[in-house]
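To assess whether ligand presence alters the predicted conformation, the chain was also submitted together with iron/sulfur cluster. Input:
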Amino acid sequence: MPFSYSQLNTYSTCPKQFEFANVKKIPRQISAGESFGSSVHNTLSKWGKLEAEKGKKKEEKDQLTMFEEPEEEAVPLTIDLLLDLWHQSFIVQGYSSKVDADSARTKGEVLMQKFYEWWEKETREVIAIEKGFSIAVDIDTIKGRFDRIERTAGKLIVIDYKTGGMRTQEEVDEDLQLSIYALACQDLFGEPCDELVLFFLSEEGITEVVTKRTPKQLSKAGDVIGSLSEQIDDEKFTATPSESACRRCPYRSICENSAV
Ligand code: SF4
């Protein structure tokens, strides 16, 4: 059975939570944090596609001879456009009141300003936005989606947007999701990525936590994936409650093992 990183992560957090979500398929409410994260991802996906379109039009224009008809100009990538995309993409579900939703909408405007300041500092060539992948790892298939891949200053860079809690360098160096991206990047583009970036957006600004992977680390990641998927295939769904996991778990109201 193919797995996504998100499913493997849920299983690592608590096998019972995985069972609720993926075996019993119990519907759950989207949280405010997830809703906000989706709004940010959707906005930056639309923005990235416009960047890619603009890059393509520039390339076509450079190839035109003086006898050819000029191509239609790409949409100017301004902060006003980015803010428009934010308001178009904002998802209202998941908030407990209109006041909370409005507050999140305003916070998102600040994040978009911070993103734009980061974005305009350097010339960036967008290679892929929201690109799906499916790779074979040992006998398993792992599916996923890149938020953004760009080539900046000659480097192939994989960027994953985050709106949640900050991670330490050590955590990012060990992050399984980034190892999966490194494997998928090599598979799709035939070259290793130079940088893997967790890109944290907050009202204070943009924080990029950068890492990379060695062949040895990727081999270890393959072993972790193999072990997790074997346990899932064997239907080992024993709960591993902890205060932090259960507090964030969408199934805690129906789970008899909940620690909170
Ligand atoms: S409430 Fe806790 S023990 Fe129960 S499924 Fe969720 S994380 Fe696991």
